[in-house]
Amino acid sequence: MAAPAANMTINADRLWDSLMEMAKIGPGVAGGNNRQTLTDADAEGRALFQRWCEEAGCTMGLDTMGNMFARREGTDPDALPVYVGSHLDTQPTGGKYDGVLGVLGGLELIRTLNDLDIKTKHPIVVTNWTNEEGTRFAPAMLSSGVFAGVHEQDWAYAREDAEGKSFGDELVRIGWKGDEEVGARKMHAFFELHIEQGPILEAEGIDVGVVTHGQGLSWTQVTVTGKDAHTGSTPMPMRKNAGLAMARILEKVEEIALSHAPHAVGAAGHIDVYPNSRNVIPGKAVFTVDFRSPELAVIKDMEARLKAAAEEICKHMGLEVAFEKVGGFDPVAFDEGCVSAIRGAAERLGYSHMNIISGAGHDACWINRVAPTAMVMCPCVDGLSHNEAEEISKDWAKAGADVLFHAVVETAEIVE
To answer: Model pTM greater than 0.70?
Structure first.
């Protein structure tokens, strides 16, 4: 298949302007974004994306999980589409680029094809996957997971946020539940552009990350149950302090992850202590332990050691402990052909590049199960993400989007 000429590149100013315009919807309190999934701000962002796609000549599809599919037709009606995209939802204190760069980079790809009057044999479809972040409705990558057959749709609809609102009800409420059967679409390939969310590319002075693998992830929700009691009048030997047990378990999490250094990581980011009062000894602690590694055997080892350590700690303290696997996926090896297309694009365009393993979960990790898939990454300042201070440069965005353009268009096959 013919590759695009090296002088075919995206419009960096237009891409940047689109990123800044989208960032006005669901602004955060410190310069980033709070555009959580299935909120009114999410609905507004979706409407803007749809308007832009239709202005670029695309037709919009919408499935029963709210996944959006903007299609640019190809010349062969029987050719499977090449898909590209990411997500528009953010963390409560999210940045302007996590996910959004991949969606709007896909849109910029379409706009550039229009500018250059290039036709492709395969249609190209730009996708916005619903609830990638998983911050409001766990787990992460929920809708791409349903699409790939990892989760049942009814189970996904029943997921509840902290206020007891269900995913299914909120999808209907904001008006973005479609009629199309989720997962019915067939793909020729899928590409996702994303910021690295880590410090490696910037530290090495590299323009583009060629993502060969994705780390596996395990989320285990741990519930420790003790007894609420007055902090001032309960003797130390008679306390059943769930908060203290949690602290001891989290020390073990650190120890377990360090034992598999340097590639394994572990921490607890979601923690609730009950009743969370200054003068009440915590009677219950609920927290989610996040373990990650590119090796499945390491993840299994960390899970088993967490369970054994927590049970031993709680037994010694006279407390109860329960475990629930609330999210996870096995390590991912991306398609060699798609990876080669990304690497070849970076070389053709003269961008420095290196192979990289994604430390975060992405929709591409699930779509890899049903279609040839790969990812391209650009650096982010200090590796900071899931933070309103998340930042990238226009040049980094351009490099990533240029490589995305070339890899996707080569795969979709230019029609001379």
So the answer is: yes
